[in-house]
Design goal:
Structural class: alpha+beta
Oligomer: single chain
CATH superfamily of one domain: hypothetical protein PF0899 domain
Largest sheet: 5 strands, mixed
Order of helices and strands: HHHHEEEHEEEHHEHEHHEEEEHEE
Helix content: 25-40%
Distance between the termini: 67 Å
Length: 343
């Protein structure tokens, strides 16, 4: 059977088509629908091109980096390979999907989100008599713009230094770059949750030992955590974001040593609190603080698209100081859906 993939002409210009990624351009040239019922069903257009040029990127039998550069056409695939592995590193152990309510793709650098700030009267589910006027929920655009930031890393290596490295090993370095980018994005998200996005919407902050939170300042007990949980109405504190120091205090509580909590952690690797909130640990959190949030309403992630690589340099083997970047920012949705507790 003749496959269309062998007729695709690969060239640099496929990375420069406005509004489309390389994968989307490649998919348009070689649609996956044409491979239903064939051995290549389940592969996308990029993976089929790897098959075409017999490039193995995983496992003990993975090829060397130089395999991408055996022909001018196969070299065009290298930037997409780099971008995909970096994205894989960003997705590994990534906390952001567990704290964002929505992800918006935006082609620009300044983004204006929407907001709804109901009063206490607006939150009441009042009965409406026949012919009466329904309560209103006002949705408006935010006064100030949400700025998007470019986060990334520079790949500094000569082609001679990596040409004989196995792709599987080279991928480890690329995944680490992705992990670093995800960490920087998480720091941005934590900053927006705590301090706001410039629209006077910083999260309300509480201190242990100060009304309405019980306990003694400097220590965290279960009673203080319950008081913090009680401040979320009408939202639900379903996620706790903590650093290593606060995590240790939590795990030492008797309530967190419940056998069912331990079985859940041993079985799934996921930690939950006795209050039902998912417990997420990250070194990006400031010491002595924890963030509680209703992840369904607290935060919007705004992204300028997928991982960007300097494809010209990578295709031409000019790896020295090739930038790998991602543009993103964060906007607060409902201010009271996230709160901060200082120990």
């Amino acid at each position: 059977m003749a496959y269309l993939l062998n007729d695709v002409k690969l060239e640099k210009g496929m990375y420069g088509e406005a509004g489309k990624t390389f994968s989307q351009v490649l998919e348009a040239c070689d649609p996956s629908e044409a491979y239903r019922g064939t051995p290549m069903e389940g592969l996308d257009a990029f993976q089929r091109q790897l098959k075409r040029f017999d490039i193995h990127v995983k496992g003990s039998g993975s090829d060397m980096v130089e395999k991408f550069f055996h022909t001018t056409e196969s070299a065009v695939l290298f930037p997409e390979f780099v971008a995909r592995v970096v994205r894989q590193g960003m997705e590994e152990e990534n906390v952001l999907p567990h704290i964002t309510a929505a992800v918006t793709t935006f082609d620009g650098r300044d983004y204006r989100s929407i907001a709804s700030v109901p009063s206490e009267e607006d939150k009441r589910l009042a009965r409406v008599e026949e012919g009466g006027q329904l309560p209103q929920t006002q949705v408006r655009t935010q006064e100030n713009l949400v700025k998007l930031h470019k986060r990334g890393r520079m790949l500094v290596a000569s082609y001679e230094a990596i040409r004989f490295q196995r792709l599987d090993l080279f991928s480890v370095t690329l995944r680490q770059i992705g992990g670093h980018i995800a960490r920087m994005q998480l720091e941005d998200a934590i900053s927006v949750v705590m301090d706001g996005d410039g629209n006077d919407n910083a999260a309300k902050s509480y201190t242990v030992g100060t009304e309405p939170i019980s306990g003694t300042k400097g220590t965290l007990d279960y009673g203080a955590l319950l008081d913090f949980w009680g401040e979320f109405d009408p939202y639900t504190m379903n996620t706790l974001l903590v650093g290593g120091d606060v995590m240790l205090q939590l795990l030492k509580m008797e309530e967190f040593q419940n056998p069912l909590t331990g079985l859940n952690f041993q079985g799934t690797g996921a930690l939950t609190t006795p209050l039902g909130a998912r417990l997420l640990r990250t070194g990006a959190m400031p010491k002595g603080k924890l963030i509680g949030l209703d992840k369904n309403y607290a935060l919007e992630m705004v992204t300028g698209g997928q991982v960007q690589v300097e494809y010209d340099k990578l295709i031409d083997r000019q790896l020295e100081r090739a930038a790998i970047t991602c543009i993103s920012g964060f906007a607060k949705l409902f201010q009271d859906a996230s709160r901060v507790l200082e120990i």
